[in-house]
Every structure is written in C-alpha cells, then in structure tokens.
Amino acid sequence: MSDYQNALTEFIKQEILHGRSVKLDDDQDLLNAGIIDSLGILRLVAFIEERFGVKVPDEDVVFENFQNIKVMARYVEERRRAAEPRVES
Amino acid sequence: MNYLLTQSVDNAADRTPERAAVGYAGASLTWSALARRSNGLARILVAHGVRRGDRVGLFMNKSLDSAVAMHGVMKAGGAYVPLDPFAPAARTALVIRDCGIRHVITTDLKLDQTVLLDEDIAGVTCLIGSSPREGFRCVSWSEVEAAAADAPPDVQLTEQDLAYILYTSGSTGTPKGIMHTHRSGLSFAVWAAETYGLTADDRVSNHAPLHFDLSTFDFFAAAQVGATTVIVPEAIAKLPSDVGRLMERERLTVWYSVPFALIQLLERGNLKSLDLGLLRWILFAGEVFPTKHLRRLLAVLPHVRFSNLFGPTETNVCTYYHVPTDLPTSEEPIPIGKPCGNIESLVVDGNEAPVAQGEPGELLIRGGVVMCGYWGRPDLNEAAFSRRKVFDGRYEDTFYRTGDLVEWLPDGNLKYLGRKDRQIKTRGYRVELDEVEAALLSLPAVEEAAAFAVPDGHGSTLIEAAVTARDGSLLTPESVMGHVATHLPPYAVPVRVRVIEVFPRTSTGKIDRRELAAHAV
After folding, report:
1. pLDDT higher for A87 or A40?
2. Where are the domains of chain A?
3. Residue B110: closest CA among chain A residues belongs to which residue?
4. Which CATH number describes the domain made up of A3-83?
5. Does A19 touch chain B (CB under 8 A)?
C-alpha cells in the first residue's frame, strides 16, 4: 500500500468515519456507499491539497478520481508527478 | 380526474407508452415498462400478503427500480417507506419497528456500509429483490420483471388511503413518520406541475434521496404530465463537476435540489463551461438560499428562472417565491413567498390569534397538501394540529402548526424568521438538535450534552457538540462521535465534539449554547 493510500485511509477513518466500524478496503466504493458525502468531499479535497501540496482543480473532483482510495492515491501521485520540475537528462 | 398518485403512470403509459418515464445512468424505463413492471410488483406484493394501508420499506440505492418500487407499493394498496440506505442499522431498525414493516423491497440488504442483520429487520417476513435469506420469503428482481402485467391487482383505494411515509428527525431521539395520502401527495404534484408549466417534453432532475420530500416533486409532479425524471446517481450527487456534466448531457430542463447542492455547482461545477441552454427552471427548497450566492447563480444562468419552494415535509410545499431577475443588492434573504393556490395560511400569535402585517407569528396551514398525521403518535398529532373555525365560523377544520416563525410583508409575501423549536437545517437536511443531544446522552459516560449549529462557510450550517464526562469516566471526542454515528444518520452526526470540564451557563442556569457556538471553530 502506498503512503498516499495509507494517509488517505487514515484521514477517512479519523475525520469522516469517526471510528465507525466500516470496511475500508482500497477499492471500497466510497461514493456509492455514501461514506463520503457532500461535506466529506470538500474536506477530502482540502486534505489532499494541504497534505500532499498539490492543487486539485474543480474539474478533477469527479467519480473517476474519487471513487475509492486506490484511484485517489493514483490521482495524487499523478498530480505530484505533474508538479515536479522536469529534469533533463 | 385522477385521485391516486399511481394513475398518472397509467395515463402516461396510455398516451406516450414509448417515452422515457425515468432515466438513470444512461438507461431508461418507458412509461409502458414502468406501468407494467409496477403492476407486476404490486401483484407479487398482494400475493405475499400486502393489504391496503400496509407499510412497505424501500431499502435501496436510487435506480430505475426505485420508481417501480414506489408505484408498485402504491398500486398494491400499500404505503412506501423509504429507508435511508446510509443511516446506521440501529436507526433503520427503529423505523421498521415503528411502523410495523413486514415487507421490504431492496436491491440488497448489504448496501456496502449498512448491513441489516436479522435483528434489525425483526418483524419483516418478506424480502423483494433480495438474494435468498433463511427465515424470509424472498422474491428476486427477475421474478418481479417476469411478473410484468398490463393491469394492476384489483385493489380498491380512495384518495384518503396512505401513499407514503417519510421519516424525519424527532426531538425525543426517535424518528417520526410523516404520513401522506394519495390526496396530499397528489394535491402538491398537481399544483407543482401547473405552477411550473411542466410538459411531457420536460426532463426533471431527481437529486434528493427518496426519504427526502423533494423527491415527490421529481417523481410525482413529473408523472402528472408524462415528463421524464432523470435520477442523479448517488455516486456523483456529491461531485459538482460530475453533476454539471450530467445536467448538460441529460439535457435537463428543470432542476430541483437544496441550495447547498446549487452553491456547490456554482463554486465547483464549472457552470460557465457547460451548455445548459435547455434548462428553464431551477427550483430549490429545504433551506434559506444565501442571497449573495443566489445573485451569482442568476448571473451565470441568465436564461433560467428560479423559484423558492417552502414548506415542511408535513405540508409538502405551502409557499413559493419566483425569484426576480433583478435581485436587490442587499444581503436580505429572499422571502418564502405567497401561499400556494391550494392552501390557506394564517400567521398567529401565542394565543393563536392572527397577527397584523409586520408582526412575527407562527405559520399555520390548511389544505389538501397537509399530511394526515404522524404514524402512531397521537401525542404529536394532538400538538401539531389546531382546530379552528373557517368560512366565517360556519365550520371547523384542522390547521397544521408548522413551527415556522414568519411575518407578512407589505407586498403580500411571507418572510421567514426562524423556528419556534430547536430544529435546524444542515445542507438541506432537517435535524432536531434535541435528537442529537439524546444520542449524545445515550452514552453512559456522558453527564451533560449540548448540540448547536454553526455556519459552515458555504451558506449552510454544521452541527457541533460539547459534552461533560460523568465522574471518573474517560471520554474522548472520538469515542463520543463513534457512538453517535451508530445512532444518527451521517448528516446529523456532529462534525466536532468537545469534551469540556464545565458548561457555560445562562443567568437562569441553562446550558449557554450561544456561548458554546461562539467558540466553535
């Protein structure tokens, strides 16, 4: 499991589920299951921006990027990579 | 003349059998299919013992099947009771027990996070749409589809028969069931279809969950004229960018939601980049729409008309206000508007005498849209209804006491002032703060508890709470939140709980909730 996945899982457990015993696999559908609600999505975006230092444009806050922890982590990784300065070899 | 909500489906199936009744995620159900499938479901329900007035639970994520389920139950003579799929199992169990549900229609009893165990569905004998489960009579969805029929079962109903029960926050900690008949549901649906000039060409959104009264407009007002209801899938309902793209892709003509969803669309939905040329009405209800956000929304969508619908679930909608295009520049909230044509409204003082224009008072409502009462709660019904003389004292009728404080403006509109009780709205959801406190106090380690609403910075409010620990008890915010999350629906769970030593008190010794709210984050 990547660091991103760990951090996202931890945040969702602590700040969104408040210790409710909910199965939280990496591919658990968080949106269909109602685990992330309208407030949760705002907090999650704020968390990603602050914790990982990436900007999350509104048009990226879509199902493909936020359905589960796995795709969220992949999205964060892509944003981080895109933000890194290019090193010419 | 229609007198049942379900007749609109049969009428549309006769007139426009091949047009879409409901759309969901790119798929759709024609009026003919909706009529035939709901007839089939109704026959199965009757065969499995559903009788006139029986309550049938709907435990499902929204889909094309939801529309079949609602109409199927009503055609069987039952009242459908939407069970919030995201509520904790303990709360769902309370609702099932409260109104004695014996039949549940479901897509699966394990909706990801909420798993209903046998003890949660005590009293239920029959599951429709469920995979086989020991101890229950189970009917699969494929059997429901195979039973599709041209005619419903032979069940004689009147307009006074129960159609649906919507459960809402109750101040004692137990949710209360608001009962609507075919008459009250239809009364609203007919008014709404006329007022917003709906036609068979309209494509109406369904954003609200089924246990939320906004959904009755989406399904029943649309059905009056054979318009299409386009369900916003749960998976994207909270994602403004996806919702915006759905509005464009589905060519929606009428949108209806709580203001919070619209504010999110405005702030994060890239509305300007979308072609929403076919959209003609944006309707909102459930909460006050902050004027500054509304003004910006009007500017982004200048071709759209906006209307504020107002009314507690108990009255469907009782007042409405068409937002003028030239909204005043002040931040003054827009009025809730004029009483709908099909109701009588009164604003009364503490002695239930009408007040003069400009005086605050409680809004009382009489008319076809009013609920017939709370399920199994004569005490609440006694308090909720007021018997008054009408027509120059010639006869008596009941008015529903809304608990809303309002005043008449000089132009005949009503202005909303607040609540008489401690009911609040959070992102459109109605929550009794007393219920939140009851949940906090059900934790043995909690000595005293206070819940209060604070602004969320997005035009709505959030719930926070503070508790004190019983002597010698160890209490952490996490343990308190974990506990209440198993009792309350997610939207009613406080976003923050403080464990404090002593409560601030007012001069009369009561917990000073205002002081607590002032120190919220």
Report:
1. A40
2. 3-83
3. A33
4. 1.10.1200.10
5. yes
